[in-house]
Amino acid sequence: MRALARPLAATAGLLLLAAGCGSGADSGTEPVTLQVYAAASLQEPFAEIGEEFEAAHEGVEVAFNLAGSSTLGQQIRQGAPADVFASANPQNMDTLVGADLAAPVDFTSNTLMIAVPPGNPAGITDLASLTRDGLNLVLCAPEVPCGAAAKTLEERAGLTLAPVSEEQSVTDVLNKVTSGQADAGLVYVTDIARAGDAAEGIEFPEAQDAVNTYPITPIRGADHAGLGQEFVDLVLSEPGQQILADHGFVRP
Is residue 46 exposed (0-12), middle (13-18) or buried (19+ Cβ within 10 Å)? Predict the structure, then answer.
């Protein structure tokens, strides 16, 4: 699996145990690829969890499709070969539940933060600052979880946000800020953490009004539904939850 991962020697044994020693691919058979469709904000922690899952399942490779949750949900409903789906909010998961493809469980949560370029050249101080005339503000599209959360905040705060663009994933919003194409954007706390020196984060109290809860599920009828359940179990395990916490995610 091509992914950025940090060594977790201290928890490796626990992870192997949490995965039940793994079913893996049968000896002499072709390697198995487990298809995990996950919200873009999960890229780094899921890369680590995927590495540990592979270590516990000989002959299994974890392949990630990382994008906006609305896009991933649509792909799965149209028959994309997903074995696992992890969404950044329940709404995009609900469409799969209605199609009898999922039995989700909440596994983590995330909160919005204002992202600005280093030095905060536009002088953003709070949520109300994002309504300033002439500000190049970038948000997620309303159908994307980070965009739905931004819309909730806007309505509850009685503000009118006028983004110059609406992106299909939170990663795209962050990229617009770090590249200098935007003065500010609304991303997750975890995105600010992984941006390092490329962006600064500004907390605002209203963010607690729109905390995103993330559900995960194996896909019913998938080629590798059993392995998918084992991946879900690893995410829900104590070692899996610790990896998520190390990246700034919070238990729901």
Answer: buried
Q: Which residues of 70-102 are buried (b: 16+ CB within 10 A; e: fewer)?
A: bbbbebbeeeeebbbbbbbbbebbebbeeeebb
Q: How far is CA 126 from CA 30, 56, 122, in A?
A: 54, 45, 12
> What letter represents residue 84's amino acid?
V
Measured distance CA(191)–CA(247) in Å, rounded: 9
Q: Is the dihedral of CA 211, 217, 220, 221 positive or negative?
A: positive
Tokens of 130: 């994002």
CA angle 45, 47, 52 (to 5 degrees): 100
- pLDDT tens digits along 181-199: 999 999 999 999 999 999 9
Query: What's the predicted TM-score (pTM) here?
Result: 0.84
Strand 184-188 with 112-116, pairing: antiparallel
Longest pairwise C-alpha distance within the chain: 64
Judge whether 214 and 86 are in contact, CB under 8 Å: yes
What single DSSP character describes residue 219?
P
Closest to 152 in 3D by CA, of 186, 116, 192, 108: 186
Instruction: Give the CA angle between residues 130, 68, 93 to the nearest 5°.
Output: 115
Residue ranges of the alpha helices (H) in 179-237?
189-195, 225-236
pLDDT at 29: 65
- Whether residue 8 is predicted with pLDDT greater than 80 in this model: the reply is no
